[in-house]
Design brief:
Length: 484
């Protein structure tokens, strides 16, 4: 593709000389001959510093926010990240326009909702692309992911591959980081869902207001906005949008609402009402939050033209979402263990409240908090565990570059406010073993924070670690699991 075509897409200066572009890149180490290298400014690095390295590796042109003394064509822009997204969309021939694009944003519920939408769309006979936290999927093809929402050059490359593979519908999680960094710039979504908003990622956004504003950016590039009207941020999200708004809710009702809700260990059953039909839905995934996710799924599916009867069948076929209140095999022992990704205050409270509903005896919580992330939520999560669990085992999560005990000390500040019993065991494997050893008949253990993750990051190194695997290996190998 000629650089001049990309320049026209960006409405920026035409290049002083035209060149053929063979790729769009942002990492100078991965530049190939003929690439358009995008100089991105970040919190810690400035891509302009690596432009010469990119040119030495064969970059044919640059996107810059300031002209550089290099003898290659340069497109001057005010926002390098937005320019990269629009350049990639152009280079890959706008794959987003060839498929139905649906999006989900919010603090919690994004992953579960995308898997519900996938199940429903496949029940409708559509080939589905899924982009999200656990993995990216093209039909049954798994594409591993490093970010919830990929960098824009990677995202449009993936969308191009999806379009080539005949994908009909794409359902994607859109994170606040992605929105703040314009990774989805240029995509016009058929519909987008707001699930909820609670404290998270303040290490990046600095204030809750900035976090909230980043989420709302999504709804200025969608044909239809769907809002969980029971969430306190619903009015803010809905206000002043240039598109129609549909609402979901249990307490306030809405365009999509649920009645006669029953939550059990086996799942959640409820009567779902929509503008296109209503009926009883029996989910295999438990929790009131699953009811909210199902309502949002129904709204997205109807926006995509899927009939209600198909929506209900698809929802009922989904057995589980990896790492979301996922039961571990206890090999016949008379207690239950669930692994969940809950790593925010609201998510931890939701999963503990849900587990409390089916605990015949005690509820035991095993959790920690990630390092190099929002420090403010640590004592909040400690207090939540103290108030909702009968016993807490505070441990390490992904400490990253922080001292695990510094993180744990902060969690303890919160749990001490409750006077609830707890123990600190820094080693996560030993913490899980301790909870299993103390388990009694009728207990429910929730191992929270990592969910689907199969690693633990310590001092910048990822070590294999899977919470469910740790539980099952210990019990399979004879961990007695019945406390005295």
């Amino acid at each position: 593709m000629l650089l001049s075509k990309i320049a026209e897409e960006l409405h920026t200066n035409l290049p002083e000389r035209d060149v053929d572009i063979t790729d769009v890149a942002y990492d100078s180490r991965k530049v190939t001959p003929g690439a358009l290298f995008c100089c991105l400014r970040g919190e810690k690095t400035d891509g302009h510093r690596f432009a010469r390295q990119a040119v030495d590796k064969g970059a044919a042109a640059l996107i810059v926010e300031e002209k550089l003394p290099l003898d290659v064509p340069q497109l001057l822009v005010t926002d390098g990240r937005e320019a990269m997204a629009r350049s990639a969309a152009c280079f890959f021939d706008h794959p987003e326009r060839k498929m139905t694009m649906l999006a989900v944003t919010g603090t919690n519920g994004k992953t579960s909702t995308t898997y519900m939408v996938k199940a429903v769309a496949e029940e409708a006979g559509l080939k589905v692309g899924l982009i999200g936290t656990i993995q990216n999927l093209i039909g049954d093809e798994v594409v591993e992911t490093e970010r919830t929402t990929p960098e824009s050059a990677d995202l449009f490359r993936l969308l191009h591959h999806m379009a080539e593979q005949g994908v009909d519908l794409v359902i994607m999680e859109v994170s606040s980081h992605a929105l703040a960094q314009n990774r989805v710039a240029g995509i016009r979504f058929k519909a987008a869902l707001f699930t909820n908003l609670t404290q998270d990622h303040l290490d990046y956004h600095k204030t809750f207001e900035a976090y909230r504003a980043a989420k709302k950016k999504l709804f200025y590039q969608t044909e239809l906005c769907i809002v969980n009207d029971d969430d306190p941020a619903a009015a803010y999200m809905s206000e002043g949008l240039p598109c129609p708004v549909w609402t979901t809710g249990i307490y306030k009702g809405g365009d999509f609402y649920a009645k006669s809700i029953e939550i059990t260990t086996a799942g959640a059953s409820f009567h779902l009402f929509t503008p296109k039909g209503d009926g009883r839905v029996d989910l295999h995934i438990s929790g009131l939050f699953s009811v909210y996710n199902a309502m949002g799924t129904a709204a997205l599916a109807i926006a995509a033209g899927i009939p209600f009867t198909t929506i209900r069948k698809g929802l009922e076929k989904l057995q589980y979402v990896v790492g979301r209140l996922q039961a571990a095999n206890t090999f016949g022992r008379p207690f239950a263990v669930y692994v969940d990704y809950a790593h925010t205050p609201d998510a931890l409270k939701n999963v503990l409240v849900t587990a409390r509903g089916f605990a015949k005896n005690r509820l035991i919580s095993v959790f920690g908090c990630g390092g190099d992330r929002d420090h403010g939520k640590r004592p909040i999560m400690g207090e939540i565990s103290g108030r909702n669990a009968d016993f807490s085992v505070i441990t390490s999560d992904n400490p990253r570059t922080e001292d695990p005990m510094v993180i744990i000390d902060s969690i303890e500040e919160g749990i001490r406010r409750t006077a609830a019993p707890y123990v600190v065991i820094e080693d996560r494997r030993q913490a899980i073993h301790h909870a299993l050893d103390m388990a009694q008949a009728g207990d429910v253990i929730v191992v929270a924070g990592k969910g689907h993750e199969t690693y633990q990051e310590i001092n910048g190194v990822k070590h294999h670690f899977d919470d469910r695997e740790i539980v099952e290996d210990y019990l399979r190998e004879g961990g007695h699991g019945i406390g005295t």
